[in-house]
Design goal:
By secondary structure, the protein is of the alpha/beta class. It has 14 helices and 12 strands. It has 2 domains: 60 residues, DNA polymerase, domain 1; 239 residues, Rossmann fold. It binds guanosine-5'-triphosphate and magnesium ion (MG).
């Protein structure tokens, strides 16, 4: 347990009982409390809203919320950005050489469009040496839909002449049972990264639990706020560990057109604005997928065609 975790009961107005409630609800760090809304904290921890307001204010003082850095520090970090191969040259070049570390890449598209397949492929390729397009690192996968398939990883590893057992042993998978659990697991990923050199964090799917749990008009603001915090946790993980972050997001068919397709990503502005790269996937003929890069900070909007077959993702 870190000092930060131990410090919760030292916050003014927080006795041992409240500290336990906070910890039971998953608020184990000052930062997790500092960035929460009073309403959510009150509800999730079964404390009064007035208490929640005080606790949050106190946690803000304790936690290093500011996070200002000088430009030279940012530059130094950015010079370390890695590029992860997707095993498709076309997709790599669409992304300017591969999926970037210190960034979130969002894969969005319909069911069966290949989001989970690309995530699986990256869970294998990230373990390859840098000279082969990998980042020689471990993987943390947060699986919300129970779609992680070790057999599929094995198939992809064999296709690349990699040792299946080694590859599987460096993928740390956790099933997330609801959105709150999912957010906790994203925080837990930090613990794994202390013991292993994690270079890829996958959340597949980012939005399914949120979509299922927050239904109806009144819940939208709350959902977006939670998603926002979650995305920032993920981004922070990517920054600290110089890791690639991949999230998936199923689209819902809506009548208003989105680049000619009648689809819109779930999570709206929050996910869209926090993800650094957004890739829109659509099915095409004979195992092919069309991947469109949308909203990149420094790359042109363009498309690539990839193939998904037994081997995994290819050209
Ligand atoms: P949702 O999670 O439902 O939103 O879909 P998704 O976008 O994650 O789709 P996913 O990546 O699971 O893609 C599934 C598709 O990949 C299948 O319909 C197949 O077309 C293809 N696929 C998966 N495994 C194999 C395989 O072993 N061989 C071949 N040829 N295709 C595969
Ligand atoms: Mg999937």
């Amino acid at each position: 347990m870190s000092d930060e975790e131990n410090g919760i009961e030292k916050l003014p107005g927080v006795g041992p009982a409240t500290a336990d409630k906070l910890r039971d609800a998953g608020y184990t760090t000052m930062m997790s409390i500092a960035v929460e809304s009073p309403k959510s904290l009150a509800e999730l921890c079964d404390i009064g809203e007035a208490v929640a307001i005080k606790v949050i204010a106190a946690a803000k003082k304790e936690a290093d919320v500011g996070g200002f850095e000088t430009g030279d520090v940012v530059l130094e970090r950015r010079q370390k950005i890695g590029k992860l191969t997707t095993c498709s040259k076309a997709l790599d070049s669409l992304m300017g050489g591969g999926f970037e570390s210190q960034a979130i890449t969002e894969l969005f598209g319909e069911f069966g469009s290949g989001k989970t397949q690309i995530a699986h492929q990256c869970a294998v390729s990230v373990q390859m040496k840098e000279k082969d397009g990998g980042l020689d690192g471990d993987v943390v996968m947060i699986d919300t839909e129970n779609t992680f398939r070790p057999e599929r990883i094995a198939q992809m590893a064999e296709a690349l002449d990699l040792n299946v057992k080694d590859i599987l042993s460096r993928i740390h998978v956790a099933r997330a049972y609801n959105s709150h659990h999912q957010m906790l697991l994203a925080e837990k990923a930090r613990d794994i990264a202390e013991d292993h050199d994690v270079k890829l964090l996958i959340v597949d799917s980012l939005t399914s639990h949120f979509r299922a749990e927050y239904v109806g008009r009144g819940t939208l603001a709350d959902r977006q706020q939670k998603l926002n915090k979650h995305m920032h946790d993920l981004l922070r993980f990517g920054d600290i560990n110089n890791a690639v972050v991949i999230v998936t997001n199923q689209v819902s068919a809506k009548p208003d057109a989105f680049f000619g397709d009648p689809t819109r990503p779930i999570g709206g502005h929050i996910v869209g604005h926090t993800a650094t790269f957004r890739l829109y996937l659509r099915k095409s003929k004979a195992g092919k997928r069309i991947v469109r890069l949308i909203d990149s900070p420094n790359l042109p909007e363009a498309e690539a065609v990839v193939l998904i077959d037994e081997k995994g993702v290819r050209d």
